[in-house]
Amino acid sequence: xxxxxxxxxxxxxxxxxxxxxxxxxxxxxxxxxxxxxxxxxxxxxxxxxxxxxxxxxxxxxxxxxxxxxxxxxxxxxxxxxxxxxxxxxxxxxxxxxxxxxxxxxxxxxxxxxxxxxxxxxxxxxxxxxxxxxxxxxxxxxxxxxxxxxxxxxxxxxxxxxxxxxxxxxxxxxxxxxxxxxxxxxxxxxxxxxxxxxxxxxxxxxxxxxxxxxxxxxxxxxxxxxxxxxxxxxxxxxx
Length: 238
Ligand code: ADP
Ligand code: ADP
Fold this sequence. Notes:
The protein is α/β, with parallel strands linked by helices. 38% of the residues lie in helices and 25% in strands. It is built from 9 helices and 10 strands. It has helices at residues 42-49, 72-79, 97-106, 108-114, 121-133, 149-161, 179-196, 207-213, 231-237; strands at 2-11, 17-27, 31-35, 57-62, 65-66, 82-85, 167-171, 200-203, 216-221, 224-230. It has a 6-stranded mixed beta sheet with strand order 6-7-8-3-9-10, sandwiched between helices. Helix 5 packs across helix 6 (149-161) and helix 6 (149-161) runs parallel beside helix 7. It is globular, with a radius of gyration of 18 Å. The structure holds adenosine-5'-diphosphate (ADP) (2 copies). One adenosine-5'-diphosphate binds next to helix 1. Residues 50, 52, 76, 79-80, 82, 84, 104, 106-110, 163 line the site of one adenosine-5'-diphosphate.
């Protein structure tokens, strides 16, 4: 699947011009890292792609469907194909690892409603498979509030991937993690991209992690793309 963003713009009601016409395409099984200093617009970009924040201009096409033109129902439908992984994990602390992974498939509201019902066996099977991929297959009954930061982020990844998204959007996945765990999480994301043929777009401010793991680097500064190329090219540039 392909994500084509054209001339994306966001001016906040405060007057802050966070995005000044960003063009970006991602597709295939490629991992793209969006780097740039704090305030560059990385988080605004990812949030505008799935309209957690409404862009002020531009288009966001997923396989040719413009998300900016969809009504609420259309958007809800389209978001089923978009896996989101957040900096702060956004997990339900009092639920177990398995329950958190299963909520990814249902959306929070339905998951809470369905909590006391049994889940379809095929959902549970897929959840086990993904927990194995992220190395948490012996922890499915642990409550999330008993886990380390790295384990939580892997639950977040499993919860996004279990939805079988067509694209993964990842906002600063390593900012609360130590360097070794950060490497593990980045490696896991690139493996998922390659093995499941899902393009992964990662916001990250640590340039070294981006260069080591991503296939492609996009540099954002003051809401504009200032660099785009392979990690090797970035190395030559600096
Ligand atoms: P990054 O993720 O690269 O740190 P952000 O997208 O968070 O950048 O921020 C880009 C710019 O938009 C900054 O100038 C920031 O202050 C501004 N900004 C972000 N969120 C808001 C908001 N909710 N209201 C007003 N300005 C915002
Ligand atoms: P339902 O309650 O019918 O499951 P939801 O609106 O809760 O519908 O979720 C529909 C899909 O969109 C789910 O896959 C969910 O994970 C995803 N989703 C819901 N809200 C967001 C959001 N704010 N950002 C990204 N994806 C979302």
